[in-house]
## 1
Amino acid sequence: MAVGDLSFHVRKGEVMGLLGPNGAGKSTTMMMLTGYLPPSSGAATVAGIPLDDTLGIRRKIGYLPENAPSYADLDVHSHLRFIGRMHGLPAATLNDRLASVAGLCGLRDVLYRRIDELSKGYRQRVGLAASMLHDPACLILDEPTTGLDPNQIIEVRQLIRRIGEHKTVLLSSHVLSEVQAACDRIMIIDQGRLRALGTPAELAGQMRGGAVLRLRLKGDAEAVSRRLQAMLPEVSIRPAGADQADVLILQHADPEAPLAESAFRAAVEAESVILEMVPEAATLEDVFRRMTGGQA
Amino acid sequence: MKRVLAIAWKEWRQTIDTPMGYVVGVAFLLASGFFFGNTLFLVGQADMQSFFHVLPMLFMFFIPALTMRLLAEERHSGTFELLATLPVRQVEIVAGKYLAVLLQLMLMLALTLVYPASLSLLGNVDGGAVAAAYAGALLLAGTYAAICLFASSLTRNAVVAYVLGFGMLLFFFLIGQASPEFSSAMQDWLTLVNPVSRYQSMLRGVLSLGDVVFMLMLALAFAGLTTFQLERRKWS
């Protein structure tokens, strides 16, 4: 089973990020919401329509499947026209909408190019344009920024932000910075289960239960960490990286723990010098790694 | 209906924007022209019989080529997910695609009308018989297209879809060829269920309602199976 025991609510006019490692069940969740894959049990409503009425849901949503599949043999204009006609848009409306989404997604210059001649970034934008052509109340975007270069990622993110001002958006990603930048709220799922749900600030706050200190030493880092461990048995000490043996990350579950004092005294006892001592705020990345079973 | 037409239009665009449609069309005309010209110039007989007799075999090679990518390619390239999440019923998808092949087949058959037209310059052509034969050819082609569309729904690979479609048509062709070997009761029964023998009776200029209904039912059955195959994906 790819997804189980997953329950959430996306508010109207909100950008919700669905975050999880590869294979967490993000795409499966989205396929179920779009009616492409019926769930074996459970219920959901999309824009107030129950999942049984898949045709009704499909009228209301715009869906960008993973990797933004489009008809590669067609040009951008024909492809979008086809999508619009499938949504039953009358010809005049279709032309207006087509011009407006082409402008919004930056497709004006490639409108009459065959899709298989376009770069991955443009194809992604074609998919995005197709998903919002019929002005849906709700957009479901599966990894909208994969395959884009950094500039395009920022463009698409801004585009999603702009769309999110008026519409409900559910987007998935395994890139943290992306959801952090584009979403009002984030849910983290792993192995098909909900691990955390909240605004980016709330999730980062959940981590602030403990204290984290970054320490750069000159001298015997080994001796310092031994003495520190003796002073504060609950502290966890690890080097910041394999090539950074002189930088230690100290972590303690109690935010009030005297990490800085102990580190100072331990360094004095070990006759080492502290070059740098930085208290670290937990990032969303820590939450993500903790929630999804990676190492904290 | 608007959506059926939209899908047919899309398929048509994909056919005329890629070399595939032209290659198959031209190859079909060359092959059929060869059999027509063969009797006309080498045998010196000015009739359409050999052309119409060889059509089932030509269809067997060319129709799977026209239909093979219709559904297999959609699944392979992921566009099926796009298509299936548009507000369209599976049966409309099948109908649109079927309509597109049907139009293409009509065009291909229409282009062969130059053969009877040139014959009529040389002598008398039995217009009624030719018209009945063309109607039969179109019915047969339509039935074959439905069978091959079903083949395309069974796989994600267009080449496999071609082979499957070809195999199913070959089956009909072979039982037609082998029927003299069977007992007469078996023969009667095989003639009844084989679209090729139904077609051959139309070539004799007899357009019976039974034959027409049989072909239409067979085409409809395979279109239904195709729709079922698309729906089935949801439960597996």
## 2
Amino acid sequence: MSKPRTIVEKIWDAHVVRQDPGAPALLYIDVHLIHEVTSPQAFDGLRQRGLKVRRPDRTLAVADHNVPTTNRDLPIADPVSARQVEQLERNCAEFGIVCHSLSSDCQGIVHVVGPELGLTQPGITLVCGDSHTATHGAFGALAFGIGTSEVMNVLASQCLLQNKPKTYQVVVNGRLKKGVTAKDVILALIARIGTGGGTGCVFEFGGPAIRALSMDERMTVCNMSIEGGARAGLIAPDDTTFQYVHGRPYAPKGKDWDEALARWKQLPTDEGAAYDRSVTLDASSLEPMVTFGTSPGMGIPVGAPVPDPSAAKDAVERESLIKALRYMDLRPGKPLLGHPVQVVFVGSCTNGRMQDLRDAASILKGRKVHPGIRMLVVPGSQAVKRQAEAEGLDRIFREAGAEWRESGCSMCLAMNGDQLQPGEYSVSTSNRNFEGRQGPGGRTFLASPLTAAATAVNGVLSDVRTLL
Amino acid sequence: MKKFTTLKSRMVPLPVDNIDTDQIIPARFLKTISKDGLGAQLFHDWRYDASGAPRPDFVLNQHWAAQCQVLLAGDNFGCGSSREHAPWALTQYGFRAIISTSFADIFRQNSLKNSLLPVIVPPEIHKELLALVAQQPEAEVVIDLASQKLGLPDGREVEFPVDPFARQCLMEGVDELGYILIQQEDIAAYEAKNPGWINTLTP
């Protein structure tokens, strides 16, 4: 009998084109997603070497980072952003790649678009020049972010040189309490293992609490794997996965579907397979989480006090905490609950899908956004936007006083003009609270869509459970 | 790619853990469609205030920093976004190596492809180096890629890990794509065996 394997090993083994001694494996890439920010220099590299794109039929482009979320019928106001988006369109036209730019019905954040088109499928390898590519792991795909040199390599060869990653099992037992979401699970994990905890590894999330999650929620968990240091994170496919993929535009059809399904069912980790590392969380003990600092690992339960740097394990960690609290202008030992906030952002590849908008709308329904708060709701894609509008969520947001926007990365990284002013605090459903991430001098509290909506209502950082 | 063999240099200390790529090069500078001109924006928001004036207390604004080719940074350096603009900005500023206790995966991969050497040292050596630059800012270290050794000013040598394939590429100054393209036959054979059903051109 062959040695029991993890899902990561099964996908890896099925994609090794060649393995020379002393060299990394040549790994075949099934799907390559590209966007405007990390691809222009890769296309330049192809032109300089006189190379073609090997598999335009396995490549898909989306404009997302730079796109405005208002006035989409007008040209992009920022000429530098406009040029980058135009360059993506030109490169795709030149190399024969389908590109969903501003005017496409399929436009959206690349990690929202791939799954909703059915391109993201169990067992595939998928890469993109973006660290949140791990999102696609929710389908049992091996998906990871790459740099621009690697984007060029994949365009030219459909392959990457990779060393086999270690496996890191994350088991989440029990059941989530009311008001606690997928976002809180991943924030709690990162707070526990640190932002470098998963370096060199791929997370495999499992356990009853993960199995109970919808695909939208699973994507939230996998999305932030990189914030735990892991280049990829995945969840073995099950009926929830298959139901989501079935019938989507790029999903296999007819006989192909039956064959695919039979193959996908072989993917889950074999009984007795060994992981390099392992951690277990108890879902029932988790609280809504919020970050207080400038690294996603600086997360605490919403009711907890701000940690004291004097309790740090060494001098550099202490200095890093002091630096973070100074940037955030927070005092150790003080509660975060009740802290004033000026902006609430619901969106991003972490929390810009239907379930996230439904969560936020459930809190805002019949309530008003506090007069001191500016709230942006940015759907992850045009398809999410249409669906939300069909369900009347846009009306709930507008009537509450929130801004209902067009799809894109928006205030997650503030490349498109949606940004914080210096000194402002946001509660954001995005993935990074780095200094200046949402605009120079801006301060970010990361949290779930539920916590974000509760904060929007109260005008201060809030525990959503008081509004349920 | 520029060759990397040996390097002797002073160090710029930046003892902060989890320095992310948004600090190395903020997102608003990623709208460029070329690789050039990023050195001036390196650590932009730590280096300059809101009016664009240099912050006098930031280490890269010390007059001696420009002569240093080695950055001595805190743990998990380069975490966050996959932007290769981070190593582009670091190398354009003049850095050739970064010493830390650990590096984020994607940043480390990107650096190796740009002749920027990530040097991982044990925590106690890292502490010693920080203490050393605090007392003797002019102290130099020697990095020898062939032997994978970091030479300290007192003569001791510390071994550091480098993927053998990446080391070969760095020492010869060649990138990976040449090696990948030699294997086109294998790639074609793999494709013939695994046709798959995904075609992005026709949903």
## 3
Amino acid sequence: MSANIYLHELRTRVRSVIIWSLSVAALIFFFSSIYSGFADQAVLINQMMSKFPPALLEAFGMNRMNLATVLGFYSLIFKFVQICLAIQAGNYGFGLVSVEENELTADFLLSKPVSRTQVLTSKLLAALTSLTITNAVVWAVSFGALAIFHGSYPYETGSLFLMLGSIVIFQLFFLSVGLVISLLVKRVRSVTPYSLGLGFGMYVLDAFSGMFGTSVLEDITPFKHMDPTYMIQNGSYDTPLVLLNASVTLIALVISYWLYIRRDIHAVS
Amino acid sequence: MNIFFRELRANLKSLIIWCVVLILLVLVGAAKFSAYYNNPAMLGILNAFPKAMLEAMELTTFNLTTVTGFYGIMLIYYALMGGIAAAMWASDSISKEERDKTVEFSLVLPVSRSRVVTGKLLAALVNCIIFVLVTWGVSLWAAQQFHPDQAFNKFLALEMAGMFLIELIFLAIGLLLGCAMKQYKQSGSIAIGIILTTYFLSVMSGMQANLDFLKYFSPFKYFDAGVMLHSGKLDPMYMLLSAAIIVVCVIAAYWIYNKRDLYI
């Protein structure tokens, strides 16, 4: 860990972190503001829904979705927040070391008296700090917006804590998977297509699973590992899937270190 | 012409990856749909659901047990993928020259800046056309196992026209971003912002009646599969709106790129 690299990395990310945090905050705020109008209508729906046999509701994934409650509605917002966070974390992950090669600063950095392990550790910690700042903003804005807009409907904070608590695992997944992919390919020219592809790809996979039953293939998407509706319903994480997620993160990190230490980095000619 | 072919070659890998992902999406979807195909019990449940609930899940107006209804739901995913791909192709093909420090080289060639932009724009356009054709082909192929009728083929053609227009809109926006942004990194980030915002707006606009006006700001809502299924044609007002967005963005892109200071 080198303080200089860490601080430099943080400084280069300040603007990006501010923009992402503000956008996510705006997203949560605007979506929450339409809740009370929506809830009055949704109560009727839920009354009708309760008359259907549960097995059939399950087939459509509707048994898990309750838009009338504060948290049910929030879980919808949370899905969108997750997309943003996935792309942000993916951006940082894909760009973490590849940016040095693109901007031809890699040989400058690696000629410094620090080991590659130290370089990677400092960069990872800086990226994690940046993500945590956004995470903290999501926490604050979520509590604030729900407190303002929940209207006359009650909600329990326990499940909200669970959902918000899952963010850090979620971010780490995209950060480390992005990093390992960027090290596996020969050269990442542009970060955004990769992170958009990864983020949206995983989201579409998850959205799809809600629509037409489930299949094993969908268990690879973190949107499913941290499914907010599951947390609301069961009051806990889906432990096997979260463990799967965490182990993917760990393996990706280990492979990243292994690859980065051995990576052949072209010097500026 | 050389620029055009050079760009096509450079984008080939990206095009192949997008096509593979799309084919996977269609295959997974079709495998799941086969459980619903011609299942009257499912239809009964769907009809019994209140409209607002289905609306929230974007299931309105589609009879999920028919192949037409199934492809109606797929359109939003097609459009999302097409839009992202188009915006990335267009913005990246312009801004990558500055990123890779090759912009000086391409501009000392005996061609005007407009010709450079034209070559890149055409290459991205060809990519979009291929992407739509692949989508169309795979969808038709996957639908064969469900014995689609003539009406389905017409509806799918309509959907593909809608998808293509959405691609064109994002292509034009991406081109403008690539040409206008002073720093090459910004064009990608702003493209992400626009895609995310328009997608969220399209979801929001369906949720509540008084937020309906938001649909004008989201190209994903311009060619709604449900509306197309009923009317049997693309909405002329939205076609005009799309054409206006495309023309304005492309003209602005050329105009700005011709006079801007390039980052070397």
## 4
Amino acid sequence: MIAETLYAVLVGPFRDIVTGPLFFLEVLIGGIAAGLLYSLVALGFVLIYKASGVFNFAQGVMVLFAALTLVGLIERGVPVAVALLLTIAVMIVLAFAVERVVLRPLVNQAPIILFMATIGLNFFLEGLGEMVWGANVKKLDVGIPDESLKVAGVLVNKLEMTAAGTAAVLVAVLAVFFQRTRIGRALRAVADDHEAALSIGIPLKTIWVVVWSVAGIVAIAAGIMWGAKSGVQFSLSLIALKALPVLILGGFESVPGAIVGGLIIGVGEKIGEVYWGPLVGGAIENWFAYVLALAFLLVRPQGLFGEKIIERV
Amino acid sequence: MIYREAGQFKTTYAGDQAVFPIVQDRVVVALAIVAAFVVPPVLAGEYWLQAVLIPFLVYAMAALGLNILTGYAGQLSLGTGGFMAVGGYAAFKLATAWPGLNVLVAFLFGGLMAAGIGLVFGIPSLRIKGFYLAVATLAAQFFLIWLFNRVAWFSNYAPSGTITAPDREVLGVLVTGPNSTAAVRYVVALAFVVVFAAVAKNLVRGRIGRAWMAIRDRDIAAEIIGVHPLRTKLLAFGISSFFCGVAGAELVFLYLGSAETLAFDINQSFLVLFMIIIGGLGSILGSLLGAGFIVLVPIFLTNVPHWMGLSMSVALQKQIEVMIFGGLILAFLIVEPHGLARLWQISKEKLRLWPFPH
Amino acid sequence: MNRYAAPIVLLAVLVALGPTVAPALAQDKTIFVPLLVYRTGAYAPNGIPSANGFNDYFNLLNERDGGINGVKIAFEECEMQYDTKQAIECYERLKAKNPVLVNPFSTGVTYQLIPKAPVDKVVVHSAGYGMTASADGRWFPWVFNFPMTYWSQASAFIKYVGQQEGGMDKLKGKKIVHIYHNSPYGKEANPTLEDLARRLGFELTLLAVDHPGQEQKATWLQVRRINPNWIYISGWGVMNQVAVKEASAHGMKMDHVVGNWWTGTEVDVIPAGDAAKGYKSMNFNAPGAGFKVHQDINKYLYDKGKGAGRRDGIGEVLYNRTLINAMLNTEAIRTAMTKYGNKPPTGEQVRWGFENLNLTEKRLEELGMKGMMRPLRVTCENHEGNGLAFVQQWDGKKWNIVSDWIEPMRDIVRPKLEAAAVEEAKKLNYSMRDCAKEK
């Protein structure tokens, strides 16, 4: 009995992997695609946390809000390109509003207070988005058919590949933005030390508006990719939960961390669910992702790419 | 002039450090507790008891628990829903396996089981800190919900997985189950909150509470002055989970009557966290005020259009309600970032001086 | 404290004092029906057409016929966001208006309301959802789930598969996967499917999808590995849209993917576009806006600007379902009136009406619903009635009926159901009543 259980847990799944390498490859690709989609959401969190130390609970709702605005505009006959620009404009306006109404009055408060403020923002945007655009599900057609191709015997989904490509491009652009541009350097300075950044003349408020705008644009990208999968509807705001283990694993301050974290979580939870899930009745991927993240954190308490915590008295 | 403290002298340290050092406070609190036990069961209708006051008390209990862990010991937890589920299911199993048992004992058993589980998931807190610690508690949240959903034994093999509170009597009065009255369930929930608020208050102002606060404020410094970090943190996890477990048992037995695992999902964890932040971290009163805010304000906002005789579509009404609720959270934070409890404290200071400016 | 303080304190006082104002009492010349709806939140796409159907049918009766036998129907919506706790708040609030029946419109909420029903004297009608065991009226006098239960539905699905495969004996060795919402609702069909798998010899795999179900990659990878002959889906909300899309993306034969009747409405397939073509689902109400009742709704409501939703929503699957659900409510009340007279009935009287409901073909024709559903007869023992289901298929534009009416395997389902009813009733301390003594 015990031997059988041990065999089923420790040997069986690996035997399955070895005997069905093509299927394993599919699981792997599926995991990578899902992981990059999580990363896309996690990126928004990271940008804001990096520059303002705020854990933005409203990121999920921002994804929903952006997607709703885009689809709502398209439904009203606005050409796609114009609608996209208008949505970006809306997200920038939102960034200004957040800086003015939420961040400025709460400057220098404890992180948990700012976190709570974003919860208020979360509720507000949730109500506003539904009120303006309606609660019904909307079809988002990005022009990429959600069909699969067989490449060397492996099923590959076009939409997921596009999403993965978009995520990769977005990260590359953000990396260049952070490393090479003037404002990117200013952002990094602010992330390092608010006061030092202020004293050398970096305008904190502008920086905040910039990061919230960029996070808003990332939210649009995430909204489009997830919205193409499920239609644009309220549930989009719940994907923030799937980004949470990614964020924790990758480290709150690290853009590459969000990507690598996403890949590890995506691949890990799919392999866990497909090969080990059936042994215990399935639907394990939600907690499996957290246990996976926990395992990494026990080794590196600050996340994979997080800044090393130096503790002093 | 409201507080006339002239003539109240403290001649002992114990008197100075009492929970309510001012006589008027003691009188008002005592009266309020008596009123809370007597007035609603007599006057309030079933709607008030069942849909407003009982959930408030149940969440107040959970908020007390989380505030011990997060507010006093500084350990962020998003596993409240999971620990509540442990309490709910453990109490259900015990109450159905042993029908003759006093159901209140089943509640405490639920709390104990939750405390045990809380200890296990508290172990990573020694190594992982801050927002990162949320991962350990989130793992608890998702794993526990999955477990109760998955293993049919926990729900006594009900095909749907729903657990139903059985009819149980305490001292000849029906306390739980579909045939019990809301008034009785209210009184039981209130008694639990009163007793455990007192327990919590006395814990946090004693040796244990000071150790928790030392860990919260600077854990390395606390360790150097001789506070054992693992023991202190685990104690916080255990006691906090005990409170949450009792709250979970109350949620099933006193409030919902029957529950599925969805009743304990991640949203519950967030809700309770919102309560203690908006109410005031590190404040017993804050836990109660926060629970009141998060439970009562949405219900109030839902009812406003009815009282005003406005007719608008329920969808629009809900959306406006959600927006106002969000706006209120922001407004309260901007006025007083340290929560409702601090707001109350400031008002009280003013009241003590009023009508004199100094 | 600063300049914001005064208005905030004022607001806090309002919060504290406001609720003391008593709610207005309903008129006593009407029948009050509370509507627990979800027009916002994660399940709104399903909730909106459902709520509109109820509204339109009650309004139609009030506008066209002046109510039921001259007694108007008063109804009030309460937004509950498919959330059990909010639903309780709604129910308790609307209880003050003396409702005679309630449609929970959520399986979770049904479980909440079942214990309250005999205490509050309010009939719980969960039409095509809720607790399957409550179909045994001897144990659950106050709960009705006609026209059909999840168990009957699952057996009808297996029967359909048998028909398609060329006989029930051909099911042996076939592979069937059930993908279900990991909640009491989703799990309901599992015992029946497991039982049938043992009897008929097909291989059954159960795959759970957690709420909300946006990410089903792992589930569908497993489906692909199993490579089943048939797939049965019990989903709700966003899970449906994603499941339909993933099924096609993973190269499943769409006409072998069958949803249950909550997994086959317009909003479930439209976001998937062409990928959804060929997808099937169970149903017990005919889709489409071509029935006489729809003409009346257009004439009496939408032409006068009194419709609850948009005109193009008329005839959607869920809209038609709640039209029928509302009709079953009102016909039961009408039945009660044949015994107790044309005045607002009490909960007890409405319960009798539900129990003695006999909906004939002729009556359906009078109601303008001929062909929308099957005649139905409810008895004291059988609260499920004798409803039948059929299979519908999405052609990219609309749902088409592609099977005959299918009789569920009552001989297999009913004994199981009675055994489950004993178990469920034991939890609530119910005792069995003797139907022979009831009239």
